[in-house]
What we know:
The complex is a heterotrimer of chains A (440), B (488) and C (421).
Chain A: H1 3-20, E1 32-41, E2 47-48, E3 51-56, E4 59-64, E5 74-85, E6 87-92, E7 101-104, H2 122-127, E8 129-134, E9 138-141, E10 145-150, E11 157-170, H3 176-229, H4 250-256, E12 265-269, H5 272-282, E13 295-298, H6 310-315, E14 319-322, E15 327-328, E16 335-336, H7 338-345, E17 348-351, H8 358-373, H9 378-385, H10 387-392, E18 410-413, E19 424-429, E20 432-436
Parallel strand pairs in A: 1-5, 6-8, 7-9, 11-12, 12-13, 13-14, 14-17
Antiparallel strand pairs in A: 1-2, 1-3, 3-4, 5-18, 8-10, 10-11, 15-16, 18-19, 19-20
Helix pairs in contact in A: 3-4, 3-5
Chain B: H1 3-18, E1 94-103, E2 109-118, E3 121-126, E4 136-139, E5 144-147, E6 149-151, H2 169-176, E7 179-184, E8 187-190, E9 200-203, E10 206-208, H3 216-245, H4 260-268, E11 273-278, H5 281-294, E12 298-302, H6 310-316, E13 319-322, H7 344-350, E14 354-357, H8 383-392, H9 397-403, H10 406-411, E15 429-432, E16 443-448, E17 451-455, H11 456-459
Helix pairs in contact in B: 3-4, 5-6, 8-9
Chain C: H1 7-19, E1 34-43, E2 51-60, E3 63-69, E4 80-91, E5 93-98, H2 129-136, E6 139-144, E7 152-160, H3 166-169, E8 170-180, H4 185-188, H5 197-222, H6 234-237, H7 239-243, E9 248-253, H8 256-269, E10 274-278, H9 287-292, E11 297-300, E12 305-308, E13 313-316, H10 317-323, E14 329-331, H11 343-352, H12 357-362, H13 366-371, E15 388-391, E16 402-407, E17 410-414
Parallel strand pairs in C: 1-4, 5-6, 8-9, 9-10, 10-11, 11-14
Antiparallel strand pairs in C: 1-2, 2-3, 4-15, 6-7, 7-8, 12-13, 15-16, 16-17
Amino acid sequence: MSSRRSLPLLLLLLLLASAAGAEARTVPPPRMLVIEAATVITVSGEEHSPGMIVIEDGEITLVGQNLDVPRSARRIRARQEVVMPGLVIPDSSLGIAFTLRQGNFSSLSILDEIHADEFDPEPYLVAGFTAVGLIPNGAGFPGSAAVVRPNLRDGAFELLRDRAYLPVSMRSNGRDNRAITAAFSAARKAIEKEDAAREKWEKEQEEKRKKAEEEAKKSGGEKSEGAKKEGEEKKPDPVFEPPPIDPNLVPLVSILREEAGALPLLFRIGDAGNLLHLQRALEEHEALGKERHRNLHLSPSSRSEQRPMVAPVGEMEALVIATPEITTLPSTFTRINLPAELARAGARLVLTPSSSTRAEFLRFRSRVAELVRSGLPRATALEAMTLHPARFLGLDERLGTIEKGKSADLIFLDGDPFAAATRVTRTMIAGEWAWEGDAP
Amino acid sequence: MSATILLRLLLVPCLLITGAPSLPGQDPGGREGDERAVSSPAEDGESPGDAEVGSDDPPPRPRRGRRRRPEPPAATPTPPPPEEESSSEEEEDWLAVIGGTIHTVSGGVVERGTILVRNGRIHEVGVELPVPSGARRLDVEGHHVYPGLVAVNSVRVVGGEFDTDPYSFTMLLALAGGVTTARSGGSISKLTYGTLDGLEVGSSPFVTLNYSTGDPAGRRKLREAFERIREFRRESARHAEAKEEDPKLPDLDRKWIKGLYATAEQLMDGKRVGYARVRELAEIRAICGLAEKYGFDLVLDGAEEGWIEPGVIARAGARVIVTPRARRDRDDRRLAPNGSSIQNAAILHRHGVRFAIFPVGSLFAPGGGVSLSGLAGRDLLHLAMEAAFAVRGGLSDEEAIRAITLGAAELLRIDERVGSIEVGKDADLVITDGPLLHYLSLPQYTIVNGRVAYDQDEAGVLDHVRRDGRPEPEVIREPWPRRLGDPF
Amino acid sequence: MSTARHPRLVIHALLVALLLGAPLPLAGQPAEGVQAFRVGKVITMDAGDTVVNRAVVLVEGGRITAIGRSGEVEIPAGAAVHEHPDLWLVPGMVDAHNHTGGSSSDLHDYVFLTNPGYRTLESVVTESKDIVRAQSGGITSVLLIPGSGNNMSGFGTLLRTGGGLVEEAVVKPYGSIKVAQAGNPEGYFFGGRRTGRSFMNYNTRQTLVKAKEYHDRWTAFETGSAGEAPAIDPIFEGFRGLFRREFVASVHTQGYQVMMTTVDMLARKLGIRTVLDHCTFDGYKIAPLVLKDPTIRVINGPRQLQFDRSVRKIYGNAARWWAGGVRQLGINTDAPVIPQEELPYQATMACYFGWTPYEALKGITAVPAESLMLEEQGTIEVGKEASFGLWTGDPIDPRHHCRVTVVEGRVVYEAEVDRVF
């Protein structure tokens, strides 16, 4: 064959080859990352050992083992590390100026209290928390929580969602149940007042219309035509102006009306007695018994009875935010792994650090490990730190697992997340390094 | 799912925890297949077991110049209420307490009787009553059934509708002592362990009167308030007459009736009951004199020297909270009798004074609490024992039991609801394995509003004592703590 | 003629009467003549646990001279007969741990770190308010001991509740040496918990060792093996009887570790006859140790119940000791922690929480008497002191009460005349 004839053949061959190899050798799009890790814990399904994650534009596109990826993709070698979804904690007050309130302050947002120069994102990132619900302190209705991404680089945090949920305290029988009853009955009254005013207004409007029709009939159809010919501007339809309402009742009214944008409620309780008082306070408002409000935050206690609530809470499949502690049944020495009991009974478990301090953030995983050693299934524990809190905060489309379509919020650990000496080595948010502590 | 269903779901497990009685053994006289959701008097020809109204009531005491409080409903057991309209089977909750010796307090003793409870109220009391199908059954043969005990005061046992912890350990222990209703400050509550349903009974009728010798100015102010209100009532009566003639007459000014004056008015109207902590005879005389003069209901707490002149208390129509073991040593230097007496309750009773009994307490803990400090038998865990000391002082067993049931309920003005085993009253019962006042008897079940709030075996706090009736204490092997993670 | 106008005549009359030897009703001395008590039941608490129904008990010179059924015992002519056919005759009760037989300001003297030489004998008030109440509770003897504010606070006095002169009421001027092993002394002397068990036990041990050495020196002198008489030391003189086992140590002790030390230090190593008082909390665990020495006694109280957190149960303290095998088991009040007259009610509570009534009654009569080496009381037997109570029924049932209390044959309390409890 002459070289002149073989050249187009070669080109054809190359084209064919490139077409055939299209799968293996695509032109790399910009900002593709590939993470090669010793283990990838997806939380949504299997754990891959070793595992790979493909990220494009900060979003996870592929997860698996032995994936074919373009050589031009930027590789992150984490062959000694375990990668799992960034931890999500639904309630923290670290970095927020401490103001203890008591009363109904539902109109306030925690964002009003956070000052960027007072908020330190580092403890969160070091502990592996990539999304954090910030919650105001206080009894009663201290204000709504917001979800942020800690950010070391600019601005201390990035807002993910304001007004994510409304915490309500029910830890002190006598004070809190009265406050809750009073607040919702005030909201109910406001609704009734508004409904009554609206009814009255509509009646008035109806009467006005009737009057106008009658007058129009009297004067005949000419006038109206004449009015049209003269191009008179038509007055805008009157709109009902509701009576003014206490801004702190607005979120509660929205909840009772089951409006689309109503906040989910989170009830902070301390024992089974609190739960009974809570249910009594809420029982006359049907909207409050719905699933979206079945969220409990349980403070640990070895002095008051908590075990009686396990069965009913499990039965209603409530979401329970608990701290990772082994407590004692009151008046005994018998220890109980209450989070495990709750999960076993059917509750959707969320685990959160024992207190909003840097020390407890760093201890969080090892405390959860203690629960796992004492009967909490590993998978439940992992979900409790990632997917379930993300779901509670309404962010589970983007956060909580390592799956295609979710944001690349990942933490890298130098061992199994529940092993004793494991530490977070680096944290990634939306495909970018948020914190690189002890990168190998 | 509505919040009410949430509540109901909570009820069921709570019943499981406290031990919903589901005992085997059919009542041979019962009609199992019979769809009788609502009872009517037994058709078997047996009497429903209506015992006679007891004639133990003390002779009526003369009341001079006092407004009578409206009489409470008759103590005679009324026939079961007529059929109600609802009556779907699910709405009816029946409990049958079968085979025990029933001490009704208001109407004698029924041997081997049955108590039928419907929706938390006593529906029928009798012998060999037919039990509706689906009823919970409690077989208490060989046991004694009493009305639940009433504590006229309590500390950290209950706290009112909003404040009570329904899982409090002290509440459980008070139930273990047979207490089913207790006053705590201004509210009166049931010991509904494990639920808030039916917790609230009402508010306390008491208003505290300080009439001590150490505060002469206070005493004068109180007397003036009463005097002024009395004058005002006369004025009101005259005014009412005048108004009939001239309706345009302006109303009397009432703006000054607040504070002490409002208290005095409420007392004289019979709406509240005066409550005074008194020990010495002089104090008793003074406050009873006030009650007699101005015609208000009075409760004396203590009245340790009441036995010396019981007529003073009787004439005022006052009731007493007696602590038989209260101790005030006699001062022999004084000629007049003084000091406390173990016979206080018996003497008061002989003179027609009505009373309730309350425990003495100890150095470490008050009588109204339940203490595990170790000094036993002096608080609500042993209210029955304090009543036994009144028997020591000469009171009969029946009157002593009355003083911790119906007598206490009357004192708190809740006797329409509790205090005796009568049709229509709340199903509050304490079931003991021997006579209540005997020191070897332990409550086996305590029932509040028809629900077993304390089951000795389930609660597991005292079930090891004389287990199976064995008199010898058993050798105790210390169990290792349960392993963490093991299922409960 | 009224005595007010002629006092001299009265005095003369009295003097004449005295000279003629007319018997004056002097309180505190045994009654004269024969007395017969006809009762419904006698609970003797003797070795055979004999109970006699429809019985007669004869008393003379303060002693019991006969016990038997009504038809079988002959009542001598001229005897004073007490007819109580409905009452039970029960041995006088003995409270081994009492702080109220003395004046109310003499609970405890904290002058030195230990005051071993003090004697409550000097503070006895034979007719104090609590002694009167004791009578009304059927209690005929109490061991009046000092408080537990330091490790050794002095000698307790064993006295009858019959009133009268101190010499007449006292049975044993050295009734016991009071030792508080731990559980109060920590806080009292130095104020605020500045000493611990190491110091307290050292303190107790060295005091007792010194006392023993004193006793040994004197014994040596008395038996001739030493030359000179040692100096008399009033602090340790009283201890001689202790080391001759003529009286007991009554020890405030509780919790198993503290009680182990008591048994080891006092009973085993120093050879002291030991009565363990309180014995509460988890002290019952040392029952095996107690059983090894047949002279150790357990008198438990005032706490009669203990909440055991490991199993969430309320246990009776006495029931636990009994279940552990201790058969010589008693009960005390630690008056005024529990009022003195409620010694029987302590037995009631012990039974409520699991002990048996007959043994509980023995625990407040025969057992404490024997424990304190009070041989003349505790049972109704011929030759024993006529100190007993006449009860309307079961003394442990709080519905019953004591109608008559007799001490050394004298009626010291009659509910008929002046009902106290």
